[in-house]
From TrEMBL:
Organism: Nocardia terrae
Record lineage: Bacteria, Bacillati, Actinomycetota, Actinomycetes, Mycobacteriales
InterPro entries to which the protein is assigned, alphabetical: Ergot_Alk_Oxidoreductase (IPR051604), NAD(P)-bd_dom (IPR016040), NAD(P)-bd_dom_sf (IPR036291)
PANTHER family for the chain: PRESTALK A DIFFERENTIATION PROTEIN A (PTHR43162:SF1), PTHR43162
UniProt-recorded name of the protein: NAD(P)H-binding protein
Pfam families with a match to the protein in the record: NAD_binding_10 (PF13460)
Amino acid sequence: MQQLPVGVSGPTRYRQSAAPELVATPTGVEFAWRPDRGHAGHMGDRTERCAVAATSPTVLVCLHSERQRRQDRRLGAAWAGSARWRQLFMGKTYVVCGASGRVGLLVAQHLLAQGHRVRAVTRDPSRLDWLAAQGAQVCGGSIQDPGFLTEVMRGADAAFVLTPVDTTQQDVNRVQRRVIDATTTGIRESGVGHVVLLSSWGAELAEPVGGIIACHWFEEKLNTIDGLNVVHLRPVWFMENFLWNIGLIKTAGINGSVVAPHTSFPMIATPDIASVAADYLGSLSFEGRSVRYLNGARDYTLVEATRILGAAIDRPGLRYSRMPQVVLEKGMVDSGGLTPGAAEFVTEIGLGISSRLVHAEPRSAANTTPTTLETFAGEVFAPAYHAAPDAPLRARVGGAALRAMLTAIGRRPV
Ligand SMILES: NC(=O)c1ccc[n+]([C@@H]2O[C@H](COP(=O)([O-])OP(=O)(O)OC[C@H]3O[C@@H](n4cnc5c(N)ncnc54)[C@H](OP(=O)(O)O)[C@@H]3O)[C@@H](O)[C@H]2O)c1
């Protein structure tokens, strides 16, 4: 429930005696007039849905009733028009950091579709030309720069923030700390009131586990900002991480990581994270500090997950091997382009999952999200696998040697 002021302009005027209800819908924010909840309007005892335009959560600038909307349509005045129209005159303003990334991009698109204004942050604006064509204001700069972020966040209603894992850096945590400091300064100096943080499962841990420790620091730091309303989203392991294994599958014919084969753990598809983030941002209905776990559709072992991925790419015989840490890290450095420090980060998290040090809150209806691994495998993994080039002969010979070595040390794929 959100308080709106009396003083409505537009063709229909309401005398307001109680707070109406704002409902986020895929096309924007709707105003539910509920006499049964004590709302009074000129329609007396009827429930009526109206479209609302607000320049801020508390300033109502325009209100049309559904009846008026139908009339306007008949007159050919497409007042509710396009998403672009709503962005210009109706929506709120959001800053989306990491807007070229997996989650940030989808958050930006959801908010644009809801009719909001989006300031999309990237170091390379040319990467987001097409998002600009959808109405986003693309802001070029670094999220390590506090001055840039302060300017970008000034006047915004809310921000989506994260501390990316830059795998080209040897000391990933050092860069993450700079991002955290700059983002916190930007939020403080600009006075933006609502923030959704893309944190991580395991963020409650104060001991270093790969990049997760930075999410711990980030949550703690945001919690120190007086008056800030913040949701810390704690998604589990991203299904998209499997895309990194396409090279291994093409060269060695196996799937692998440092996680024990029969350890069951939750996995989530990133679009499910983005849609929850966009719901929070679109409605701005959160207050104070809160944590929201996002546990994916269900838990899987990597043996089971490998079967699902294999079936999707017409390799039903695909098997999983728990690889020695040193072997996997060397593979990530040699063929994945990661620095040794970043590769160690990845394996640290895998080992943390295996030991159950990294774990989510117990599964519930509230933290379960819709996309299954089966859906991800068919819709995302298989097309990416088929689009990737086949491994050259030399790499496949190396892959065969890797399989032989794994079998020799008792890590035969299962
Ligand atoms: N992978 C997992 O299993 C997992 C699980 C839970 C939580 N998480 C969390 O998810 C987050 C990563 O999310 P994601 O996968 O959506 O990210 P992503 O796809 O890796 O994208 C990272 C984004 O950050 C931007 N970026 C990086 N450094 C920047 C800088 N200095 N200035 C401006 N922008 C910068 C990049 O944009 P430009 O290059 O365009 O500037 C890019 O858009 C991390 O915080 C991680 O802890 C991951």
